[in-house]
Amino acid sequence: MALNGFGRLKIQERLLSGTVCAAFPSPRNPPSAAAAISPHKSTSLSFSSSFQFQGFVVDRKQSSSSVQIAAVRHLEGSVTKTQGLRFAVVVARFNEIVTKRLLEGALETFHKYSVNEEDIDVVWVPGSFEIGVVAERLGKSRKYHAVLCIGAVIRGDTSHYDAVVNSATSGVLSAGLNSGVPCIFGVLTCDDMDQALNRAGGKSGNKGAECALTAIEMASLFEHHLK
Ligand SMILES: Nc1c(NC[C@H](O)[C@H](O)[C@H](O)CO)[nH]c(=O)[nH]c1=O
Ligand SMILES: CC(=O)[C@@H](O)COP(=O)(O)O
């Protein structure tokens, strides 16, 4: 007998091993339809009529001696299935000596993973504070599968750094949540220029390249599994 619905419960003629599994009836069905299944002995499940499990419908068929839960599904994006995926890249011009290197790293990664150049739009904004509103507009346009946000905020003498970092962070987060399109946070937040350059193609790698790969995976996850 097979249980259809959100999952598939195959009744097998063998002992169940592993953790206890219990099938609970929905409130509308008598508790007698529930069956706690022990991992150490076969369990007879007898269904006298069709009834609704929590999210499951059990067909009216003969019962059997044991139950096996189907395997858990794992969903994740693929970085090798990029055909047709479209990306927007929002780049802050402030600290351009850093952000242009981050952009270069991102574009190289898109190329390396076979994203077509015609499927990439780069949008320049004055500073990281402006990234969020543009990212949300791009997400809501439904033209892109992911939006990569690139900036470099470098601490100065005042608390302005905190204002810009907090605004950029919450702006990118809100853009993704409000648009439903993955918005990837590729904004460096550094104490000095050396830290920033080290993360824009220096000894600490290129955060732009890393975030482009994240953008590809998230775009693939949404396109191939979460539609
Ligand atoms: N100091 C940095 C800024 N400041 C500019 C702001 O982002 C914003 O453009 C301005 O406040 C007008 O709204 N931006 C950066 O990206 N990085 C910085 O270090
Ligand atoms: C992150 C900033 O806004 C910063 O560059 C501004 O420098 P300062 O705090 O010295 O005005």
Q: Could you please describe the fold and organization of this structure?
A:
The protein is α/β, with parallel strands linked by helices and 227 residues long. It has a domain at 87-226: Rossmann fold. Strand 12 and strand 13 form a beta hairpin. It is globular and about 65 Å long. The protein has helices spanning 96-112, 131-140, 160-179, 193-198, 207-225, and strands spanning 2-5, 9-12, 21-23, 35-37, 51-53, 56-58, 66-69, 87-92, 120-125, 146-154, 183-190, 200-202, 205-206. The ligand Nc1c(NC[C@H](O)[C@H](O)[C@H](O)CO)[nH]c(=O)[nH]c1=O is lined by residues 92, 94-95, 126-130, 151-154, 164.
Tell me roughly what share of residues is in helical segments: 25-40%
- The Cα radius of gyration reads 26 Å
CATH topology term of the domain at 87-226: Rossmann fold
Distance between the termini: 31 Å
> In percent, how much strand structure appears in the residues?
25-35%
Q: Report the average pLDDT across residues.
A: 81
Level-1 CATH class name of the domain at 87-226: Alpha Beta
Q: What is the second-level CATH architecture of the domain at 87-226?
A: 3-Layer(aba) Sandwich
Helical region count?
Answer: 5
CATH superfamily of the domain at 87-226: Lumazine/riboflavin synthase
Number of strand segments: 13
InterPro entries: LS (IPR034964), LS/RS (IPR002180), LS/RS_sf (IPR036467)
GO cellular component, one term: riboflavin synthase complex
Pathway: Cofactor biosynthesis; riboflavin biosynthesis; riboflavin from 2-hydroxy-3-oxobutyl phosphate and 5-amino-6-(D-ribitylamino)uracil: step 1/2
Catalytic activity: (2S)-2-hydroxy-3-oxobutyl phosphate + 5-amino-6-(D-ribitylamino)uracil = 6,7-dimethyl-8-(1-D-ribityl)lumazine + phosphate + 2 H2O + H(+)
